[in-house]
Amino acid sequence: MEENNIKPTAASNFIRDFINEDLKQNKNNGKVHTRFPPEPNGYLHIGHAKSICLNFGIARDYDGLCNLRFDDTNPEKEDVEYVDSIIEDVRWLGFDWDDRMFYASDYFQQLYDFAVQLIKEGRAYIDSSTPEEIKNQKGTPTEPGTNSPYRERAIEENLKLFTEMKDGKHEDGTHILRAKIDMASPNMHMRDPVVYRIKKATHHNTGDKWCIYPMYDYAHPLSDWFEGITHSLCTLEFEIHRPLYDWFLEALHLENRPRQIEFARLNLTYTVMSKRKLLELVQEKYVSGWDDPRMPTICGLRRRGYTPESIRNFADKVGVAKRDAMTDVALLEHSIREDLNKNAKRVMAVLNPLKVIITNYPKGKREEMETINNPEDETMGSRKIPFTRELYIENDDFQEVPHKKFHRLSPGNEVRLKSAYIIKCNEVIKNDTGEIIELRCTYDPETKSGSGSTRSVKGTIHWVSAPDAVKAEVRLYERLFTVEDPAGDEEPDFKKLINPHSLEILENCFIEPELSKAKPGDKFQFVRQGYFCVDPLSTGEKLVFNRTVPLKDSWSKIEKK
C-alpha cells in the first residue's frame, strides 16, 4: 500500500475555503468526513481518479475520514465485476478506507422506511400515470408542469399501493413513487421527481429481496447522511440537483446535514469520459477491453505503464475549478515522464533492427560493457551488457544518402555506440530488391567508453548484441482519437473519429538480454525511444512491451513559453 507515501498538498481552493468556513463555525463538531461514491456500472477512468484523489486527499489533509461507497440503485446496469475493479483501482492509487466500505443497498430498508414517512406526511404519492403522461406533465424549462391526477391520492391508498409495489404485486412501469414538491418550479428536477420505481431485477448485493429500487437523487443524500458525511463533493452536473439533495434531508427533518459542494469534472483532450461511450468501445470491439492501454480507464492506464504517483501528481496539477474546461492530455503524459525519468532503468532495445557486422572485431570475442542504469539516480548503480562482432541497430539510425543535419550512421561516417566504441560504416549490403539488410563497419579500439579517449563524434546511437539479443513484441500506442474533443465534435458518431494508427504492433524487436527476466508491470526507459512497461499478458516465451509515452514532452515546452 502506497498511502503512507502520499504527500499532502495544502494548495488553497474554493472547496477548502468552504470546509475552513465550516470548521471556524465548529460545524460537524470540527470533523471532516468525505466519500467516494461510484456507481458500479462501469470501470473507473482518469476523471474518477481526480475525484478519488480529491475526496481522500481532503480527508487526509484535515485528519478526517473518507468512505468508499457504491451507489448501487440500478440493478440492471450494475455488476460485481465493476465493484471488484473499483476496489482494485482505488487501492492501486494508494488509498484505503479501513472498514468503511458501504453500499447504498445496505440502506434499502431505511430508505424504504423514510419513503413511507414522506407518504405519511403528504410529501410523496403513488403516480399511476404512463411514462408518456408523466413526461408531458413535466412541462418544459420555459413552461410550468401540470399536476398529476394522482397527486392528491389519499395517504392510506398511497401506503397500500407502496406496500404492494414492495411485495411484487405490480408490474414494472405501472406505478412510481413521486415526491410532492412543485410542478411549477423553474428547476425541472424539483417537479415532483421520481423516488422509487418497480424493477423486478436481481441485484448484485441484495439478490431478489427487493422489487422496487430508489432513485439515485433520493438514495444519494440519505446515504451521505447515514454515514455521517460532512462534505459531499461532486461534479458540476449535480449543481442543479443540489436543491433536491437538500429537500430530501429537510423533508425528513434530519439534523447534521451534509453540505454538497460541486467542482468541475475532468475533461481530457483526445479522449471521451462518458461511461456509455467507453462501454460502446468495449462492446463493439474498437478496443480489446476496459484495460486496453488506449482507454482512459485507470486499469487501462495501469496496463500502459502509468504509476499511482504520476496520476496523483496529475490530479494535483489539474486542481479543482468551478467551471468546466479541457485539460491537455500532454499534462498527463508529462506527469508520467516526470516520474519514470527519476525511477525507470535505462535499457537498450532495437525496435526496427538493422544488422551490423564489425569486420575488424575479432570473431568469437565478447566484452562486457558497463552502463549506468539511470543518470538521474546514482543509487540505481550500473550493469554489464554484452558486446560482440554482430550487432543490431535501429534502421532509422542509418541513411545511405544522409540529409544535412543527420548525425547518425551513413557510408564513410562515424557514430558512437552508446557505452561502447566509435564505429565507421564502410559497406552497405542489399538484397535482390534493393533493400538494405546489413552494414559492414569497423571500430576504433581506442575509443571504448570510460577509457579516457578524447575522440568524439556528433552522434550516439543504441544497439544490442545480435547473439545475445532477446526477441520481443512491442506495442506502440498513440492517442485513441484524431481530434481534441471527440465528445464535442460535430461528427454525430464519435467512433468515426478513432485514430486508425492508435496501435502499431512490432513483432521483430530485439532487447538486451537482461530484460528476459522482466516481469509484468516492470517499467523501463528504452534509450532514445520512450518509456515502456511489460504487459500483464507477457510470458517468458513471449515478452510483450507496451509504450507508455514517447520521450518527447510537449507539455514542458508549453510551460516554458
Strand content: 15-25%
Q: Provide the helix percentage.
A: 25-40%
Strand-pairing-aware structural class: alpha/beta
N-C termini distance: 38 Å
Write a structural description.
By secondary structure, this protein is α/β, with parallel strands linked by helices. The chain folds into three domains: 3-268, 3-Layer(aba) Sandwich (Rossmann fold); 275-343 and 472-511 and 518-551, Ribosomal Protein L25, Chain P, CATH 2.40.240.10; 353-462, Ribosomal Protein L25, Chain P (Beta Barrel). 25% of the residues lie in helices and 23% in strands. It contains 13 helices and 27 strands. Strands 12-25-26-27-23-24-13 form a seven-stranded mixed sheet. Strands 21-18-19-20-14-17-22 form a seven-stranded mixed sheet, with no helix packed on it.
Please give the structural blueprint.
Elements: H1 14-24, E1 33-36, H2 46-61, E2 65-70, H3 80-92, E3 101-103, H4 108-120, E4 124-127, H5 131-137, H6 155-166, E5 176-179, E6 194-198, E7 212-214, H7 216-226, E8 231-235, H8 242-251, E9 259-263, E10 267-268, H9 275-283, H10 298-304, H11 308-318, E11 326-327, H12 329-343, E12 345-347, E13 349-350, E14 353-358, E15 367-372, E16 382-387, E17 390-394, E18 414-417, E19 422-430, E20 436-444, E21 460-461, E22 463-465, E23 470-477, E24 503-511, E25 523-526, E26 530-534, E27 544-550, H13 554-560
Parallel strand pairs: 1-2, 2-3, 8-9, 10-11, 12-25, 14-20, 18-21, 23-27
Antiparallel strand pairs: 4-5, 5-6, 6-7, 13-24, 14-17, 15-16, 17-22, 18-19, 19-20, 23-24, 25-26, 26-27
Helix pairs in contact: 2-11, 7-8, 11-12
